[in-house]
What we know:
Pathway: Carbohydrate degradation
GO molecular function, one term: identical protein binding
Organism: Sinobaca qinghaiensis
Number of helices: 15
InterPro entries: Ald_DH/histidinol_DH (IPR016161), Ald_DH_C (IPR016163), Ald_DH_CS_GLU (IPR029510), Ald_DH_N (IPR016162), Aldehyde_DH_dom (IPR015590)
Mean pLDDT: 97
Shape: globular
Domain Aldehyde dehydrogenase: 13-474
Helix content: 25-40%
Amino acid sequence: MDVTYQHYINGEWVPSDHDDTIDVINPATEEVISTIPSGTKEETERAVAAADEAFDSWAATPVADRAVYLMKIADKLEEKKDHFIKTLTEENGKTMDTSNAELTVAIDYFRYMAGWARKYEGEILESDRPNENIMVFKKPIGVVGGIIPWNFPVFILARKVAPALLTGCTIVIKPGQATPNTAGEFAKLIHELDLPKGVFNIVHGKGSTVGNTLASHPKMGMISMTGSFNAGSAVMEAAAKGITKVNLELGGKAPAIVSKHADVDLAVGNVYASRTINNGQACTNAERVYVHEDVAEEFTRKITEKMKNAKVGNSMNEQNIDVGPLVNQDQIDSVSAMVDNAVKAGAKVETGGSRKESDKGFFYQPTVLTAVKQDMEIIQEEIFGPVLPIMTYKNFDDAIKMANDTVFGLSSSIFSENIHEIMRAANELKFGETFVNRENFEAIQGFHAGRKQSGLGGADGKHGLEEHLETHVVYMQYKNDIN
């Protein structure tokens, strides 16, 4: 693919009014595969104006009719699924299997949210006064700004778009600048439908310009962003100028506790998946492991073997790839520096520990580190690569304490066959999610939300849908003496 994408505003393809562009790089080959415009403040404001103009009519459209559009989008995505899988793999470096899974969930997400059309509801409350009803209406919050990260550019686009459109909101999307191609292809898909103009818009570019303009714009009802803590903090600061609602999913540093009562093979398989799925670039997946000393040798030996045998390569032209490249040069530099710092501080490399020898591509070897300490950067900061630091513990109190010792609070997991340990973890781990004896991937009918510096608000399910609604209370007086 070698494509030049344009903004999509008010149902039209909009060429940039300047020559400032951004090259999109295939992380497996380091070749330029597309070009996007670096959106300006004025272009972003134009998209917001289009979404604002379309809002009243879209909000007045019966919700069942809005749901039909979501079903049409799902059908179109399914029809073009193979194309999107290839586009996603090329721009992001995912394996083809991971891209296929992401598309499958995205399609399901639109259909799932469409199913809420006749289910979300307001309330009628008892009044303290005679001849009065108190009615609580749930109404769309307005124009939504959806800021998409580079690691799951199709699924998180669906996560932003589907509930917004279903509830009657209009939306302006800013794709991740490293992986904008799937969003550009999604805009083409939308253009083939009869979705009213202005309901869905895309502005490509940098977060510092496009994202900041969206967050600070007085016409925005909500900014929904998935990304890093620093980016989320900047969005929240910009949104504060207009007291605009923010919905933020930020970084994570998910702990996994492997108890002496664990099924070790089950734990090994699931933790391995955490560090290799999406090439280790998933904020919910286990980034640090606390293993009871009684099973530490077995767990470490088995997972080191699996990581050592993981096949690294370009899934576009090789079969049975387990781990692809990291997304760009910055990411591989960051992962390399974190591992090097850990080794300098005393960590031991059990396998991996460096870039894969390759002529091209941002490939990093799956890595296991032992002899790490709780205060090391590799334990405290998000890695976002196929790297696993392992610590041991003696008693369960210590495991819980170390797991909670982080500024993040997105995801966590425990592997144990002991119900008492599981219940303690469920009650004492300070995270938005805890996964028990399974991989760290949330269900679309659940609620995906973080605590502490991992964000505000959440997504998925009933509660994620309601993030896009605001409450309007009507006090209705009536008379008894009707003639």
